[in-house]
triphosphoribosyl-dephospho-CoA synthase (Sphaerisporangium rhizosphaerae), 333 residues
Amino acid sequence: MSTTRERSPARAPRPSADVLANLAVRALCEEARLSPKPGLVDGRGAGAHGDMDLALLLASAEALRPAFRSLADAARRTATGAGPRGELDLREELQRRRGLGPRDEYEPRRLLVLREELGRIGRAGEAAMSRVTGGVNTHRGALWTLGLLVAAAAIGAATDREAARVAARLAGLPDRNVPAGAISHGERARRRYGVSGARGQAVAAFPHVIGVALPRLRLAGAAGLQQDAARLDALLAVMSLLEDTCVLYRGGREGLRVVRSGAERVLAEGGAGTRRGRDALLELDERLTARRLSPGGSADLLAAAFFLHSVPWPSPADARPCRRQGRRPACRR
Ligand SMILES: CC(C)(COP(=O)(O)OP(=O)(O)OC[C@H]1O[C@@H](n2cnc3c(N)ncnc32)[C@H](O)[C@@H]1O)[C@@H](O)C(=O)NCCC(=O)NCCS
Ligand SMILES: Nc1ncnc2c1ncn2[C@@H]1O[C@H](COP(=O)(O)OP(=O)(O)OP(=O)(O)O)[C@@H](O)[C@H]1O
């Protein structure tokens, strides 16, 4: 993979649109290949899904590459295209205006325009995905999450936390071009169970990515632990906390309880890297597969953590393992 980075006089180097698209596609492929994931598609089979397999997920990830590149290009153009101080301008503006008052009074117009452009590119990406998969929803949630983070990195976020905050800002803005259409499964689950789903996770600056999955990946890297086990444990930790509309739509509150308590149990048994934990994980996989419970939202957030973990941020501070690891994450139960 190319590691091309662009330099600008105003700030430290940051990854190009091509590099960001590569990293996003790679994150999706690594999530898809990771095994054994409970209830999810991986190299062993379709998990709780009747309509997907690993080859389809990999083809879908590749089909999203142009969309990720376009999202990054659009974000970079917006950040650099206006303002006397060039690319730093939008980031500084975002920081300065944070928390000043009612949003509409101070929202930078460029950000509103970008939000609608991201929506247009995202919907085109969904269409490209559908063409490759024959209409199967392989990565709709993942495109949303990764797409926002790719855009935030391209704007010039210096750290993963900052990227999550910029993505949150974008996710919270209105998109006047959303087509009226069929109500999604996620929307049905949100209405029925009063949860905020993929959109809420983004608007909250991805607490399960930043506070749950990433610290586990970092800590494992720093301690030289087995990578796949650490990745599976990161997935399980997210599953144990997330209000996943994918699960809620398929299995209701009881389904969500099964997923969350099952994931918690695997971790309590020692996690995927231990014999007992592994047995509990395989048992959970059987249970979720039999009940058609897919933790697709957690899979998306794991891919987002892989992506953020792989971006060469200008600020090395973010590459350090999180010292607050032991604390309870800022996620609702
Ligand atoms: C916000 C999105 C995901 C639609 O969400 P909605 O809940 O209405 O629909 P849908 O059921 O199709 O997708 C939900 C998917 O999100 C994931 N998910 C579910 N729960 C969660 C959660 N709590 N946190 C994160 N992801 C979750 C799952 O993969 C699930 O399948 C998105 O597709 C969208 O609005 N796209 C429009 C294009 C756009 O604006 N793109 C901008 C950046 S790319
Ligand atoms: N490895 C994976 N296995 C299964 N789903 C995944 C995986 N990785 C991510 N996902 C996410 O799970 C979501 C698919 O969920 P799901 O199939 O329930 O969608 P749906 O549109 O509600 O369709 P369905 O009619 O099959 O219920 C995708 O949006 C995708 O982002």
About this structure: Residues 1-10, 82-88, 100-105, 318-333 have pLDDT under 50 and may be disordered. The first strand starts at residue 5 and ends at 8. The beta strands are 5-8, 11-15. Residues 71, 118-119, 122-123, 140-141, 143-144, 147-148, 175, 184-187, 197-199, 201, 242-246, 296-297, 300-301 surround dephospho coenzyme A (ligand 1) (CB under 6 Å).
